[in-house]
Structure formats: structure tokens, C-alpha cells
């Protein structure tokens, strides 16, 4: 563990709400714990922790006042509802009374939903990088002074030592001892972390900058250098979609006819659609792939990923005329409307990776299970198409479906037309979907975020315009009208739709304006122009 001293002069981050509501008493061990402070929160992620034996606070002034009064460090845990390793740490440590007793005795414990408070997440992710010299992630585990200054941290810690990591109780005891010994120094001593945070958040000067294409050419060169020419995407595993990079390449092709840019984007989208990062039964893209071939995903599905990827599918379909892009977009929107859309027309945030305590349990199959569901003819085709003829590809005991052979090859193999092969696959998907629907479903984070909804609104409007799908445009407009009527209050945008307003951030405003401009382009409405202005 790397520990750095931090100066007192770092400006505390904003505090919005008191947290002394909804308190209940739980008996933990021999004592009585005031618990369930999180039960009154609007965030599903925070509510998931409302019955932990940990004495959690949301981010609020009361927590830091308690830390100052009792001269304790603050344990800040940041995560989100669909995060698999957040669940693992919760099950191993936060639901464990013996671990919770240590946390409660020596720390003031704060839980934050990174989707509700991206500002806090950004600040402490940067601090984590400075302190540990490693990339951050979730769950983020940071230790702060009562003045909100970070002095140590990490991400996931196992309850017992493993993976080359110390056990969480061991970490807590080391931090407790370190804080007691260096408490005064932590509040007084200057350290480069202040300069680091200031450098990564530079002030805006009034000097005009010269604009040229140097950054554009630099980005293109970087993407070409990192491009995987066999499987698409950029860099090594774990491999993320990088939808914004794909959109950049497609717009480069549109404006300058750069064939290499289009080929990188097209190969990436086709490989992703053929891989297991795409849900071949229910539609929608998972957050990332754990391998470089896009085969096994980290199974959570995020609204923002699918919004940005819907745009790339639309741009690719328009640029190439390849109907496969439109079909994938259609299946993505079908999943969106079926599983992520509220009664009011806005969209929820994410689907969990886990169900019944296991990542991917909802999505993977047993071969005998598939054979039971399908007819013999369907199974012969589906088993070849989805890779069931090989060994299990998910944790050595199950199969996660992906496109192992293209339809054309199956047509030659079985002596059937491609239309007949497609018909068998379509019938198989329908039966597998119905079978899978009877399983325990992954958790839904029904939080409605302005920024992510704005991204999806824009993508629905854009894809509806490009593919001439009026129902997609209508859905985008319905969600846009919801945001305007329910999330715009007293001339200000709310970041989250809830009973307790949370002021919006810059990206909320920027993405909403982006969506409004697309709405005006699709079909002019004066109210959209007025709202944008």
C-alpha cells in the first residue's frame, strides 16, 4: 500500500443534503448500531447497502462532523449498482459483522453512487492515481481526513489475503494506526498531490487558442497504432467498446473519405456484434470484454454504452448501406424498449452483471439445456453457430453464446440456403429468450440520469432519422419531453430524477443540448429551440 501526505488547503467538494433521516436501530454483536441511513436514499446502489451491518452515511456534512468530533478517519467507498466487484466486496466485507465492527469502531463510513456524484468520483479517482501510481476503478476505496483530504486508498480489497492483496481488516488496522500516528501531519504538510489535482483541473484563461487539425491527426495516429487488425477494437484485454473513437473514425470517413478509418470502425463493430459482448439472445451490449476477442463480457449493461453504440451503428449503416448494422440497431432498440424504458418514457441506468450472486448466471447456458429447448434441426445449426461444439468457454462449466461460424459457412455445411439457416437461428433465439426469461433476472438500477438519457435521446433521434424509424424518433421525443417537464426546475436542470433534486453537472447540460440540436434537425419544434436557448 502506498500512502502519501496531503495538504489541508485542498478545497472540500460540495455538500448538498443532510443525512439524519430514516434512521433505524440494528443489533450488531453486543451493541446497537444506528443503521439504514441509506434506506431513504434515491440511489438503488445506496439502498442495496441499507441493511449492511456497516454504519454507512451518504455523502453529507454530518458524516464529516462526526469524523472531526470523534477524531476518526473517513472510509469512502464509491461504486455503482451494476458493478460485479462492488458486489463481491459487499458480500465479503460489508455484510460481514466482524469486518463491519472494525469499520464502525475506527472509521466514519461513507457510501457514494458514482453515477449520482460523478464529481466526487472524478476527484477521488485522480487522488487514487496519484497516491498509488495505478489506475483506479470500482469499487473505489479511499481513506480521508475529516477535512475530506485523501491520504491512502485502493480499489477492491478481499476479506482475506488473496490475489496478492492484503485482507481488508489488515488494511483497516494499518490505516487506523497510520492515521493515529500521523494525524497532525496529514492536516498540515504540503504534498505534490495538490499540484497534481490542480494540474488536472486547470483554470480557464482568457487567452484565445489557435485551432488546427493537430489534435485530430494525433488521435487518428494513436488509434491506428493501437488498432487490433484481427479482432477490431483498440489495445489489449480487457477491451472496451470505445464508442466515441468509433464515431470519430466514421465521421472522418464521412468528411474526408478516409477508407482506413471506416475499415477500423466497421471491423470493430462486426467483431463486437459477433462476440459475446453482444447479447445474442436478448440484445444490447455489455460494458466490456475480459478477452481481446470480445468473447466473454463483464456482463453489466450500461445505458450510456448502448446509446453511444447505437449512434455508431447508425453512422456505419448510413455510410456502408450494410443492412446488418440496421438489424443490430433494431435489436438494440428492442432490448432498450423492453428492459430499460420506464412508463414515462425515460430510460433506466443499467442492468447488473450478477443474478443469484453470480456474474453472468442469467446469460450463460448448458449444452444439454439448449438441446432440450430446441428441435434437433435447430440444435444442429445453433450449436455450430453459437460455439457449443467446443469446450465450455465460461469458467469451464457453461457456454456463453457468440458467433462461432458465419451463416454462409453454415449454409454450405448443412446444404441449406442462408434464408433457411437464418430462420432456424431466429426460431432458436426466440425459444432461448423465452427460456431465459424464466430465470432470476439481474438487478435493474432504475435511476434516471439526465446525461445518460440525453445521450440515448440523441441516438434514438439520429438513428430514427437515418433508418427512417418514426417509432424511434417518437420514443426519443417522449423521453425529451419528460426531461423538460420533470427534470427542469426553476430554470435549472436536475442530474437525477428524484424527490430530492440534485443539481446537474456540465455534461448533463452539454448532452441535453446535443439532443435538442438533433431534435431540431429531425423535425423542427419551436419548444425544442426555445429550450436549447
Automatic annotation (TrEMBL):
GO terms for biological process: carbohydrate metabolic process. Pfam families: Thioredox_DsbH. Residues 36-197 form the Spermatogenesis-associated protein 20-like TRX domain. InterPro entries: 6-hairpin_glycosidase_sf (IPR008928), Ssp411 (IPR024705), Ssp411-like_TRX (IPR004879), Thioredoxin-like_sf (IPR036249). This is Thioredoxin domain-containing protein. It comes from Leptospirillum ferriphilum.
Amino acid at each position: 500500500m502506498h500512502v502519501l501526505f496531503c495538504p489541508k488547503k485542498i478545497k472540500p467538494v460540495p455538500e448538498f443534503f443532510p443525512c439524519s433521516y430514516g434512521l433505524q436501530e440494528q443489533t450488531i454483536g453486543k451493541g446497537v448500531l444506528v443503521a439504514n441511513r441509506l434506506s431513504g436514499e434515491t440511489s438503488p446502489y445506496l439502498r442495496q447497502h441499507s441493511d449492511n451491518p456497516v454504519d454507512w452515511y451518504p455523502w453529507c456534512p454530518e458524516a464529516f462532523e462526526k469524523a472531526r468530533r470523534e477524531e476518526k478517519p473517513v472510509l469512502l467507498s464509491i461504486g455503482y449498482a451494476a458493478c460485479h466487484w462492488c458486489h463481491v466486496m459487499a458480500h465479503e466485507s460489508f455484510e460481514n459483522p466482524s469486518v463491519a465492527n472494525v469499520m464502525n469502531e475506527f472509521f466514519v463510513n461513507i457510501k457514494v453512487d458514482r453515477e449520482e456524484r460523478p464529481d466526487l468520483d472524478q476527484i477521488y479517482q485522480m487522488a487514487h492515481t496519484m497516491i498509488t501510481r495505478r489506475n483506479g476503478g470500482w469499487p473505489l476505496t479511499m481513506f480521508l481526513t475529516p477535512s475530506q483530504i485523501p491520504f491512502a486508498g485502493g480499489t477492491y480489497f478481499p476479506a482475506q489475503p488473496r490475489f496478492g492483496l492484503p485482507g481488508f481488516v489488515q488494511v483497516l488496522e494499518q490505516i487506523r494506526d497510520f492515521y493515529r500516528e500521523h494525524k497532525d501531519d496529514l492536516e498540515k504538510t504540503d504534498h505534490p498531490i495538490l499540484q497534481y489535482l490542480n494540474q488536472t483541473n486547470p483554470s480557464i484563461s482568457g487567452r484565445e487558442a489557435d485551432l488546427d487539425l493537430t489534435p485530430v491527426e494525433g488521435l487518428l495516429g494513436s488509434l491506428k497504432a493501437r488498432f487490433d487488425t484481427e479482432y477490431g477494437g483498440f489495445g489489449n484485454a480487457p477491451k472496451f467498446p470505445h464508442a466515441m473513437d468509433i464515431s470519430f473514425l466514421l465521421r472522418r470517413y464521412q468528411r474526408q473519405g478516409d477508407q482506413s478509418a471506416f475499415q477500423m470502425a466497421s471491423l470493430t463493430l462486426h467483431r463486437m456484434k459477433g462476440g459475446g459482448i453482444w447479447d445474442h439472445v436478448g440484445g444490447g451490449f455489455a460494458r466490456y470484454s475480459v478477452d481481446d476477442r470480445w468473447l466473454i463480457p463483464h456482463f453489466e449493461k450500461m445505458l450510456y454504452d448502448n446509446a453511444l453504440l447505437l449512434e455508431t451503428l447508425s453512422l456505419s449503416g448510413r455510410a456502408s448501406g450494410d443492412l446488418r448494422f440496421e438489424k443490430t440497431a433494431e435489436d438494440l432498440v428492442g432490448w432498450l424498449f423492453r428492459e430499460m424504458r420506464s412508463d414515462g418514457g425515460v430510460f433506466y441506468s443499467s442492468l447488473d452483471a450478477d443474478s443469484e450472486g453470480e456474474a453472468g448466471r442469467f446469460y450463460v447456458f448448458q449444452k444439454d439445456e439448449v438441446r432440450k429447448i430446441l428441435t434437433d434441426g435447430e440444435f444442429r445449426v445453433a450449436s455450430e453457430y453459437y460455439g457449443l461444439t467446443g469446450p465450455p468457454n465460461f469458467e469451464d462449466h457453461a457456454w456463453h453464446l457468440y458467433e462461432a461460424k458465419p451463416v454462409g459457412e453454415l449454409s454450405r455445411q448443412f446444404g441449406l440456403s442462408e434464408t433457411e439457416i437464418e430462420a432456424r437461428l431466429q426460431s432458436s433465439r426466440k425459444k432461448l429468450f423465452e427460456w431465459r426469461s424464466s430465470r432470476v433476472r439481474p438487478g435493474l438500477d432504475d435511476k434516471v440520469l439526465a446525461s445518460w438519457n440525453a445521450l440515448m435521446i440523441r441516438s434514438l433521434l439520429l438513428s430514427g432519422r437515418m433508418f427512417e424509424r418514426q417509432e424511434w424518433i417518437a420514443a426519443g421525443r417522449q423521453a425529451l419531453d419528460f426531461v423538460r417537464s420533470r427534470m427542469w426546475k426553476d430554470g435549472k436542470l436536475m442530474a437525477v430524477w428524484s424527490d430530492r433534486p440534485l443539481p446537474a453537472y456540465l455534461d448533463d447540460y452539454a448532452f441535453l443540448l446535443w439532443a435538442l440540436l438533433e431534435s431540431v434537425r429531425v423535425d423542427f419544434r419551436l419548444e425544442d429551440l426555445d429550450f436549447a436557448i
